[in-house]
Amino acid sequence: MAGMGRRLVTNPTLDLKHLKAAYGERVVLDDVSLELQAGEWFVLLGPNGCGKSTLLDCVVGRKRPAAGAVLIAGFSLEHDPFAAKLHLGYGCAPDALPLLLTVRQCLEIHAGAKRLPCIGDDLLGLADELRLTPYWESFVDTLSLGTRQKLAVLLALVGDPKLIVLDEAFNGLDPASAQILKRHLRSRLKESGATLLLATHSLDIVEHHADRAALLIEGRLQRVWESADLEGLRATGQRFDDELAAGLGYFK
Amino acid sequence: MENLKSGPSWLRTQPHLATGYVQWSNPKNRRIIKILCLVLVGAAVAATWLAWVHRESVAAACQQLSAHRVMIAVLAGIASAALVSRQRSAYAARARRSWVAALPMSRRALWVEGLTVQLAPLIATLALVLGAALATAATLAMGGLPASASLIACGASLAGALLGAAGGLLIPLPKPLLPYPGSRYVPHRATHGRRPVPSVSSLGIWPIRRMFALLQPKTLSRMLLPVLAMMPLGSSAATAMIWIGIFGTLTAGVFLVGSVAWVVKVARQWLKPLPLSLQRLSWVAAIRSAIVMAGLGAAAKWLAWVGAL
Q: pLDDT tens digits, chain B, 309 residues: what are they?
């Protein structure tokens, strides 16, 4: 699984420049700069309320940053949102899904907005693997949390986006589905060169799947683990929570 | 490959509108729409019949409205400006956090979708007004009475509403509420040093707080309008104040009873795993409200006594 840590010298898929975001007086993100390259699995870690979801909201255009810029595949989210969002796939929170639409209708609305004539076979295959197909004509309000989560992830993958943004995507998934999804995401990054930005609390993803990881504390990137650092951890068999505890007192 | 079937193709570039369309065209909701249409048709037939029976009075009322067409236009303009402006701010707040917020939309699609969502309630209202005016005019014409007054009044209100809508679109949006309601960044009152006391008695304050939450000035003032409209002409301000007071206290009482029932229902679900009987729960939830009810009853009685003097 690991070993995808190559850094291509091309236009970054996601380029965050001195991003700052605030809710009223409270500054939630402060001068966050980050570059994600094609084919990279990037994990964003941090305690509750540190600004992970706000950072993702800024990346997908759900929150306007107070300062700084977001570029997706070279397109500015502020000045050319249409072009930027054409390359973006975002899995919204399961509770934000429209309750009175069916699974098929949700996927079709996303596909239609991305100018696709149909839903691709790879996505249908993944839905089948995740056992979502029996719920195809079920209304979202009748689905369990895990099934809604699967739908939210599928929505993010509609149209082969260059940048996939997922927030706590493995919450509520059963272990088998989580494994299928991780395998699918890894092969998708390898084959299509997409980039994955994932906010999570799950350290096993950093240990086994991520190419790079960053720790966000109080709105600032406290540390970024490059692929060599993660490869080193994997080679020595050291656990990532030890690394966090030793280096930053994260668990204090 | 699965071909897209949801909604017409021209709506696909406008995900908010497509969501609304698909939701309302689902069989579940189609039944509700059919019932609403039937109710609307029934109301229209009843209103037309009433207008026919009282056509002399309706004609006189239309003459009055026509004579005051400038005022009608101004009032329609103010109402439509307020409606459009509110729709704009609601759409701006909702669209940014919607489930389709991250989907690509061209500037034109954004503009069309925004305008449609913001103007839809106004267009529906104007269609109803126009329909009512045409039906009234037809009824009056069939009864051999002058029908032009109804059309003039309708024209004035439509013109005013359209100008008001244009104004509503030009009014700058208020600054977004940050942190937005429900955000985890909304500051909470510090509770350091306050030790929780094991007791269910705090459930008793819940219905009272809910009553105050329901009794917001805006809600109360809207509910008072029919009371004021029903006051006989020539009533004094003192009488009006007394009626408003009685109505306010009685409304508070009704809300309080409803709140107690709601709290018992919700708390029963929430506290189901606890060894707490329904009787005890109801007693705890109702006792403080009963005291408040007694106070409200006394206030209403005192107001009625003052009114009788």
A: 555 666 677 788 888 899 988 988 888 788 888 999 999 999 999 988 998 898 888 888 888 888 989 999 999 999 999 999 989 988 888 888 889 999 999 889 989 999 999 999 999 999 999 999 999 999 988 888 888 888 998 999 999 999 999 998 988 877 766 666 566 666 666 555 667 777 888 889 999 999 988 888 888 888 888 888 777 777 888 888 888 888 888 889 999 999 999 999 999 888 888 888 888 889 999 999 999 999 999 998 898 888 776
Domain that holds residue B261: 202-308
- Count Cβ atoms below 10 Å from residue A251 Cβ, excluding itself: 9
> DSSP string covering A19-74, please?
EEEEETTEEEEEEEEEEE-TT-EEEEE--TTSSHHHHHHHHHTSS--SEEEEEETT
The CATH number that domain A1-87+162-169+197-252 falls under is 3.40.50.300
Alpha carbons B130 and B126: distance in angstroms, whole number: 6
CA B106, CA B99: separation in Å to the nearest integer?
A: 17
Asked whether the beta carbons of residue B99 and residue A96 sit closer than 8 angstroms, the reply is: yes
Q: What ipTM score was computed for the predicted complex, to two decimals?
A: 0.83
The answer to whether the CB atoms of A108 and B6 lie below 8 A apart is yes
Chain B residues whose beta carbon lies within 8 Å of the beta carbon of residue A109: 6-7, 12, 15, 18-19, 22, 100
Residue that finishes a domain, picked among B126, B150, B170: B170
Give the separation between CA A217 and CA A209, rounded to whole angstroms: 22
Other CB atoms within 10 A of residue B89 CB: 16
Same domain, B256 and B136: no
Tell me if B4 is assigned to some domain. Answer: no
Residues of A in contact with B18 (CB under 8 A): 109, 112-113
Q: Contacts of residue B179 in chain A, CB cutoff 8 Å?
A: 23-24, 26
> Which residue in chain B has the smallest CA separation from A122?
B1
Q: Note whether B15 and B142 are same-domain residues.
A: yes
What was the pLDDT predicted at B180?
62
Number of independent structural domains in chain B: 2
Residue B67 lies inside a defined structural domain of this protein: yes
Closest partner residue to A121 (CB to CB) among B1, B29, B183 is: B1
Domain for residue B2, yes or no? Answer: no
Evaluate whether B11 touches B18 at the Cβ level (below 8 Å): yes
3-state secondary structure of A168: coil
Q: What is the DSSP letter of A102?
A: B
